[in-house]
């Protein structure tokens, strides 16, 4: 199964995973980390490396990061040197829910990247628009 | 130095905060020079930094020696210089590069460093370098993001 890591500035990623768990349960092969004040690129890299190891069964990993170009994005990008990771920036809760509920043993990394991008964008809309 | 808009110390070099907020705060900047020997040797990181720079802004990644040579010829367009550590600024200045202002934006906790101010950490050697820069008349301020208040490093080192 494709692994998912959720990465953010501060506790956002961890809390988003908890929020998703309230709605659809905690997904398999899913982990999160946040960069904290006082982290160096190296300390955060070490933790991201660890969770990628945890979720990766050889099917590849998708990183959902909070912000294009931020430290979580840049840190996980460096892991592309040794890991099969694809990165999607600006994640939201619908994407996490989709990853938890729709990801199966046979979903490929490429299929899931495409689906998550589509879901993430399509779930942003004005509600109650006249 | 003419066209030097902003000089920053940040161990993350280019990341979200720099790209978004500082380029907005220094809207004239058209070019970024990253000066770091290790990054200069690392095509993978160079590729990443090039992906992080918004369109319309160019980026150059130089070793310290290359930067000294290049900066002797001045800057052709409004430029932001980014380095990882105060030592690099000192080396540039000792080689005759004209820098009169340095922003400290990111110096994380590493072995040998102690908390200096909020989440900026420095080693005793780095404090000495900062003192020497200030003694030369260079303004050194801590400001992680433009929305925060500037903190004068000279007053913290007294």
From TrEMBL, chain A:
Protein name (Swiss-Prot/TrEMBL): PTS EIIA type-4 domain-containing protein
Record-linked InterPro entries: Bacterial_PTS_sugar_comp, PTS_EIIA_man-typ, PTS_EIIA_man-typ_sf, PTS_IIA_man
Gene3D superfamilies for this protein: Phosphotransferase system, mannose-type IIA component (3.40.50.510)
Transferase among keywords: yes
Organism (species): bioreactor metagenome
One Pfam family of this chain: EIIA-man
The entry's keywords: Cytoplasm, Kinase, Phosphotransferase system, Sugar transport, Transferase, Transport
GO cellular component: cytoplasm; membrane
GO molecular function: kinase activity
Domain PTS EIIA type-4 per the UniProt entry, residue ranges: 1-124
TrEMBL record, chain B:
Tagged with keyword Cytoplasm: yes
Principal subcellular localization: cytoplasm
Classification via InterPro entries: PTS_IIB_sorbose-sp, PTS_IIB_sorbose-sp_sf
One GO term (biological process): phosphoenolpyruvate-dependent sugar phosphotransferase system
Location within or outside the cell: Cytoplasm
Gene3D superfamilies: Phosphotransferase system, sorbose subfamily IIB component
GO terms for MF: kinase activity; protein-N(PI)-phosphohistidine-sugar phosphotransferase activity
Keyword Cytoplasm (UniProt): yes
A GO-annotated cellular component: cytoplasm
EC numbers, comma separated: 2.7.1.202
Domain PTS EIIB type-4 residue range list: 1-158
UniProt KW keywords: Cytoplasm, Kinase, Phosphotransferase system, Sugar transport, Transferase, Transport
Pfam families in UniProt: PTSIIB_sorb
UniProt-listed PROSITE patterns: PTS_EIIB_TYPE_4
Protein name: PTS system fructose-specific EIIB component
Organism annotation: bioreactor metagenome
């Amino acid at each position: 199964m494709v692994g998912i890591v959720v990465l953010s500035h501060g506790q956002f990623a961890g809390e988003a995973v908890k929020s998703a768990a309230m709605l659809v349960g905690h997904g398999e092969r899913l982990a999160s980390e946040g960069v904290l004040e006082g982290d160096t690129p190296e300390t955060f890299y070490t933790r991201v490396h660890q969770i990628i190891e945890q979720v990766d069964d050889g099917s590849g990993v998708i990183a959902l990061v909070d912000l294009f170009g931020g430290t979580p994005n840049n840190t996980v990008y460096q892991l592309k040197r040794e890991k099969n990771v694809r990165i999607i920036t600006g994640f939201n809760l619908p994407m996490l829910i989709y990853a938890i509920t729709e990801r199966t043993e046979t979903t490929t990394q490429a299929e899931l990247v495409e689906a998550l991008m589509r879901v993430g964008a399509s779930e942003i809309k004005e509600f109650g628009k006249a | 130095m003419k066209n030097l808009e902003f000089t920053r110390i940040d161990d993350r070099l280019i990341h979200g905060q720099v790209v978004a907020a500082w380029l907005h705060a220094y809207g004239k900047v058209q070019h970024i020079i990253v000066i770091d020997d290790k990054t200069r040797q690392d095509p993978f990181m160079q590729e990443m930094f090039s992906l992080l720079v918004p369109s319309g802004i160019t980026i150059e990644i130089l070793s310290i020696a290359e930067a000294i040579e290049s900066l002797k010829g001045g800057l052709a367009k409004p430029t932001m210089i980014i380095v990882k550590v105060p030592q690099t600024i000192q080396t540039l200045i000792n080689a005759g590069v004209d820098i009169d202002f340095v922003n400290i934006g990111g110096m994380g906790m590493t072995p040998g460093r102690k908390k200096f101010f909020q989440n900026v950490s420095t080693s005793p050697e780095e404090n000495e370098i900062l003192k020497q820069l200030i003694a030369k008349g260079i303004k050194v301020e801590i400001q992680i993001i433009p929305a925060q208040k500037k903190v004068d490093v000279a007053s913290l080192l007294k």
